[in-house]
Structures are given as structure tokens and as C-alpha cells.
Specification:
The complex is a heterodimer of chains A (301) and B (364).
Chain A (H helix, E strand, L loop, with lengths): L1 H50 L2 H6 L12 H8 L11 H31 L5 H13 L6 H11 L5 H25 L4 H8 L4 H9 L4 H17 L2 H6 L7 H10 L7 H32 L5
Helix pairs in contact in A: 1-13, 3-13, 4-7, 4-10, 4-12, 5-7, 7-10, 10-13, 12-13
Chain B lengths: L3 E10 L2 E11 L4 E5 L6 H9 L6 E6 L2 E2 L10 E4 L11 H11 L4 H14 L15 H13 L5 E5 L7 H18 L2 E6 L2 H7 L2 E6 L2 E6 L1 H6 L4 H6 L6 E9 L4 E5 L5 E4 L14 E6 L4 E2 L8 E12 L3 E8 L2 E8 L9 E6 L5 E4 L7
The chains are: A mainly alpha (301), B alpha+beta (364).
């Protein structure tokens, strides 16, 4: 009898907790969907607007679905209208950006890996100070180095060129890339380096044969970080380059702000999406390693 | 010719002294264990022998050749690390031949060595695997293999068994012992585990605070510890050190424990120096396993003590007795029944005791 009573009350409790759990779960989904739509909303507006004609934009609301898929504005944004003066379009600047971002990402990542390797595996007197000053570089605002950097580029004779921008972004990236690699290599057992030294491998051999092959996660993190930073940069691009040598973000700004006639919202939106696509691609391709790499320092082995 | 000789070696990191005037010699084929608590400098000493750390003072000789400033790869040594330190991106084969390739050994010779060693260590079926696909014991074996293929003059082991679980550790310990018996190579082995040290070493150097406390055979370390640190460090539970005084008269020497109402006659002990023993403050050292429940020989000293605590550990039991308010641990077979809080008759084996000066802590 006693037992029966107890089982029935347990059953009631079980039932109750089931309903509570169900309610909480649906509430969770509701909140998640709410936030997701909030974040996706601007992208939706951009895509939809870029596919409309100007006529449709004027008549409908922001949210209205386009009557037909019209890619004209994308073609205009990428390749222009085909008449001479005053026609700005993204294609040449897109290649400027590629020419800038690829070497800048490569050099800053490579130098960061080297520096991180030295700071963790070839410790020397005062290495903490070197690291501290490098870290300091992460916190210097972009604006503070504009004037000295302009002067430096002038002296080197590479102002208003893609090479100049590569240099600026490489130098400015080193503190960040060093920080990433240093923190990653700290968790790699130093015994590996010792074993390799006994086996007769030197400084570069240990780096290329032992450490670099196990650095894939952090290389991905660094590349994504650097690519996003450099591709999206506007300040350095607009300060150190103009006209033909400008990167895509500067060109985008010129296109959107300096149009002489009516504002073409569909072309503006298409241009903005084009300018954002490469970072999106990099993130989609490498994103799964990104989270893994960011957390890999925490777990050994 | 000594295979390895270390002379007046000192090392400090900044203002911290890690090693102080270390002198050490190893003959060909010996197995030297550096044993000590963590932070005693044993790993630093091993790294110095390997050439991975610089020296502040003193010299290291291998085969009478001063290698103090020679690069690790040219010292003719090989090292096995605690974390195995297998190169994660290379498979077992590449791991094992990496050193030979750096030394530009011919391809045929490399293959020959690899085959010999991998068969010997039974890793020949694992050659194409990555270290991450191996078990702890297999990794350990590959790490040893990587050292073996180089045919070094001296093997250095840095706590190679610490990362293994208890059962595997005992197995691998036997394998290392077998390996040494078969190959008869010279080994320097660092550990903090006294059982490992005792079972493997032909000589044990016990270190504390950067100084070698005693460097002798395992038997001597166990039976004749040179100071209270060694006495306390070796043995489980460690040696009972009973504080008290010596009384010397013309024909005999007596030991009285502090606060005790009985004397222990010291007849068969081999003092270094028998003068000035009267009234000397000493520690009387006796191991728990040398206190018996039954009389074993003529010289055993008989005493009645009260048992305070009993710890059962399977095949044996550890009983804590009260000797004039000092704790005295004894180890018996667990078949013996001992009642707590009652006087029990015990026998001290006086042939097995050690005595230490209470001030200098040194053996007398």
C-alpha cells in the first residue's frame, strides 16, 4: 500500500517535469528564432533590394519580395554601364583587394608563426618584454599610426600603391598573428623540440618539419582573422591609396556616396554584397576549423 | 675510461641555484638512476648531460672527451621523454628514422637499423601508424625505438613511465630492465618513484636541493642510508627515526629513546667513529619491516608497546605503535592478529638499524 502511494506520487512528479521541460524547450526555440531573424533581417533586405528594379523599390516596401529575379544591378555593380568618364564599378578594385590581401595575409601569418615559435621554444632573456611590446601593438588605434605610416611609405616610395598597403597590413597584423601562434605553441610540449634537437634538427628544420605540420588549426584561425581584417579595412585603404590603386572598400564608398544622379539602391546593395562575399567564402570554407582552433589551446594534445 | 663523468658541475637559473658541485661517474654498461623529489634538479642534470641546458660551472665528459660545449646531436646520446615527444605529424617509421636522416646515414643502413629495432621492440606492425593512433605502451616503445636506432653510447630516460597507468608501468619497467640486460648499454634514468629506481638501477644517486645525497648500489641505499633524508625517502612506509641519546661506557653502548624507560643495547652496529658517542643526540633508525612479531635471532631486542592504529593493505598490515609518545610504524603479514590499545610484544632486528647524528643528520 505504502509502496503504491509512493509510485503514484513519483509518476505525478515525472509528468510535471515533462511538461515543464517541454515548455522550456519551446520557449528556447522561440527566443533563438527571434534573435536569428533579427540578425538575418538586414541581409534579407540587401538581397531583396538588389534584385528589384528602381521602379519596384519606389513603389513597394523594404520587405516586399521582387516580382522577378533581376540581376541587372549586380552586373552594373561589377562591370559598370559601359560609358566612359564617371562610371565607377567594382571589378578593378576587387582585383586590387585580392592583390593586397593575399600577400598581406601570407606574410603576416608566416612572420607571426615564426615569432610565436621563437617566443615559446627558443626562449631568450627578455623575451617576455618583446612579447609585451608586441601585444601593445594590438591596442594601438589605427588612427594613431596614420601620419608616421604615411611618411614611411613616402620615404620608401610606395605610397598610393598596392605594395604599400601590403606592407601596412603585414606590419599591423604581426602583433595579432604573433599572439595567436604564441598561445598555440605554448601548449605544444617543449620536449618535442628537445627530441628534435637531439635528433640533429636545427632551428628551421624543427619549425618546418615538426611545428608547422601540426599548426593547421591556428593557421586557419589566423588566416580568417587577417583576411577579414584586411579585406574589410577602409581607413588604411582610403588614407594610403586613391584612384586606381584603391581597394574595394574604398571603391564601394566612392560608388555609393559620389553618384551624381539619383540614388540607385539596388546597385548599392549589390555592390555591398559583392564586397562582402570573399570573407563569407573564407569563413564558410574554414569556419569549422575556426572554432576548433580558437579552443585548441585549452586542451592539451 | 668512464663512459660518463661529471665534474664539479653547478647550474643556476638566475639567482636560484639548481645544482651544486655535482660529481658523478658511470662505468660502461651501468644503469644509473637519478632519484629525488620534484624540484631537486634531477631533470636539469639530465638535460645538461644531453646538452639541452648550458652549464654555469664544471664539465661533462663522455668517454673522457669534454662535451660541455658540444651540440646535443654530436654527443652520441639518445633521450626518451616523459611525454614521449613523438613527432605528431609523422608516422612511426618517420619518427624512428628522423635522427638517422638528419645524420645523413645511407638508406640501406637506415632500413637495416629500422628493421632490427622495430622487430626487437615488436613495433614492426605499427610502422605506418601516426602516434595518435597508438596506445600509451606502444608510444613508449616507439619512443625507446627512436632512441635505439641511433645506437648511442648513453641512453637518457626522463621519467619515461610517469604517464602510464599503474599496471602498464610495472610491465614497461620490466621491459626496460630486460632491454638493459640484453643490450648492456649505459643508461641514465630520472625518476621520482623509488620502486622504479630500486628495481632498475645498478646504482642510484639520490638528490635533494641540487646536491647528491648518496650514490651507491640499491642495496647500500636501502641498508645504509647516508643521512636522514635518504633514510626517509627510501622505503614505504619510510624508516622510523626515533629521537634519543646514546650512553657509552667502557664495555657497551646503550640507546635511550626520548622519554622512554628502557635502554636498547647497541652491540653489532658498525660506527664510523666510536669516540665521543656518550650523550650524543641521535636518531635511531629502524625500518617498519625490521620490527618482528616473533623472535628471529639472538640479538633481537624485545619490547612491549601499545598499538594505536592499524592499516590493512591486503597482503600486509601497517601498525602504528606508541614508543614513549613517538610514533613507531611496523609492517606485518596480515595473517597476524594484533589488538589495538593493548601491549604487544615486539622484536627489533638490531642488525638492520641505522643511526644518525641529530644535528648534522648524517649517518654515524
Amino acid at each position: 500500500m505504502q509502496d503504491n502511494l509512493q509510485t503514484s506520487s513519483y509518476k505525478q512528479l515525472e509528468q510535471k517535469s515533462k511538461y515543464t521541460n517541454m515548455f522550456l524547450r519551446w520557449f528556447l526555440y522561440f527566443v533563438l528564432i527571434l534573435f536569428a531573424s533579427y540578425f538575418i533581417f538586414p541581409l534579407y533586405v540587401m538581397v531583396v533590394t538588389s534584385l528589384k528594379t528602381m521602379e519596384e523599390i519606389r513603389q513597394g516596401t523594404l520587405l516586399t519580395w521582387p516580382s522577378s529575379l533581376n540581376f541587372d544591378s549586380w552586373l552594373v555593380a561589377w562591370g559598370g554601364r559601359g560609358y566612359g568618364a564617371g562610371d565607377t564599378f567594382l571589378r578593378p578594385y576587387f582585383w586590387n583587394s585580392i592583390k593586397m590581401v593575399v600577400p598581406a595575409v601570407f606574410f603576416s601569418t608566416f612572420i607571426g608563426a615564426m615569432t610565436g615559435y621563437v617566443l615559446t621554444k627558443w626562449r631568450f632573456k627578455g623575451d617576455q618584454w618583446v612579447f609585451l611590446f608586441l601585444l601593445f601593438g594590438c591596442f594601438i588605434p589605427f588612427q594613431a599610426i596614420l601620419l608616421p605610416m604615411a611618411r614611411t611609405l613616402g620615404v620608401l616610395g610606395i605610397s598610393n600603391s598596392v605594395i604599400g598597403l601590403v606592407l601596412v597590413h603585414t606590419v599591423y597584423g604581426i602583433p595579432f598573428t604573433t599572439l595567436f601562434f604564441r598561445n598555440y605553441y605554448v601548449s605544444v610540449p617543449t620536449e618535442l623540440v628537445k627530441a628534435a634537437r637531439i635528433d640533429g634538427a636545427g632551428f628551421f628544420k624543427i619549425f618546418f618539419k615538426i611545428l608547422l605540420p601540426i599548426s593547421a588549426p591556428i593557421i586557419v584561425v589566423t588566416v580568417i582573422w587577417q583576411f577579414t581584417q584586411i579585406w574589410n579595412d577602409f581607413l588604411f585603404g582610403s588614407t594610403f591609396s586613391f584612384g586606381e590603386a584603391a581597394p574595394i572598400q574604398v571603391a564601394l564608398n566612392n560608388m555609393v556616396l559620389s553618384s551624381t544622379s539619383v540614388k540607385e539602391y539596388n546597385v548599392d546593395m549589390a555592390s555591398a554584397i559583392i564586397a562582402g562575399i570573399p570573407t563569407l567564402i573564407v569563413y564558410v570554407l574554414a569556419g569549422k576549423y575556426f572554432i576548433r582552433g580558437l579552443t585548441s589551446g585549452a586542451v592539451k594534445g | 675510461m668512464k663512459t660518463l663523468k661529471i665534474e664539479e658541475l653547478s647550474k643556476n637559473f638566475g639567482s636560484t641555484e639548481v645544482l651544486r658541485k655535482i660529481n658523478l661517474e658511470i662505468d660502461e654498461g651501468n644503469f644509473l638512476v637519478l632519484l629525488g623529489p620534484s624540484g631537486c634538479g634531477k631533470s636539469t642534470l639530465l638535460n645538461i648531460i644531453a646538452g639541452l641546458e648550458t652549464i654555469n660551472e664544471g664539465n661533462v665528459y663522455i668517454d673522457d672527451y669534454n662535451v660541455s660545449k658540444v651540440e646535443p646531436k654530436d654527443r652520441n646520446i639518445a633521450m626518451v621523454f616523459q611525454s614521449y615527444a613523438l613527432y605528431p605529424s609523422m608516422n612511426v617509421r618517420e619518427n624512428m628514422i628522423f635522427g638517422l636522416k638528419q645524420a645523413k646515414v645511407s638508406k640501406e643502413k637506415i632500413e637495416e637499423q629500422l628493421e632490427k629495432v622495430s622487430k626487437f621492440l615488436q613495433v614492426d606492425a605499427l610502422l605506418e601508424r601516426k602516434p595518435s593512433q597508438l596506445s600509451g605502451g606502444q608510444r613508449q616503445r616507439v619512443a625507446i625505438g627512436r632512441a635505439l636506432v641511433r645506437e648511442p653510447r648513453i641512453f637518457l630516460f626522463d621519467e619515461p613511465l610517469s604517464n602510464l597507468d599503474a599496471k602498464l608501468r610495472v610491465e614497461m619497467r620490466r621491459e626496460i630492465k630486460k632491454l638493459h640486460q640484453q643490450l648492456k648499454t649505459t643508461v641514465v634514468y630520472v625518476t621520482h618513484d623509488q620502486t622504479e629506481a630500486m628495481s632498475l638501477g645498478t646504482k642510484i644517486a639520490i638528490m635533494n636541493h641540487g646536491v647528491i645525497q648518496q650514490n651507491e648500489s640499491p642495496e647500500n641505499i636501502y641498508n645504509k642510508p647516508s643521512n636522514t633524508f635518504v633514510a626517509d625517502f627510501i622505503g614505504s612506509p619510510s624508516m622510523n627515526l626515533i629521537k634519543g641519546n646514546l650512553k657509552q661506557s667502557s664495555d657497551r653502548i646503550l640507546f635511550t629513546a626520548e622519554g622512554a624507560n628502557f635502554d636498547i643495547p647497541i652491540n653489532s652496529y658498525d660506527f664510523d667513529d666510536t669516540s665521543q658517542l656518550n650523550n650524543k643526540e641521535i636518531y635511531f633508525g629502524i625500518r617498519p619491516e625490521h620490527i618482528y612479531f616473533k623472535k628471529s635471532n639472538e640479538n633481537d631486542f624485545e619490547v612491549n608497546l601499545k598499538a594505536d592504529l592499524s592499516e590493512y593493505i591486503g597482503h600486509e598490515q601497517i601498525i602504528t605503535f606508541n614508543l614513549a609518545n613517538q610514533e613507531l610504524l611496523a609492517k606485518f603479514s596480515s595473517t597476524i592478529k594484533i589488538e589495538l590499545n593493548k601491549e604487544t610484544k615486539l622484536y627489533f632486528d638490531l642488525t638492520q638499524v641505522s643511526m644518525f647524528d641529530a644535528n648534522s643528520q648524517e649517518r654515524i
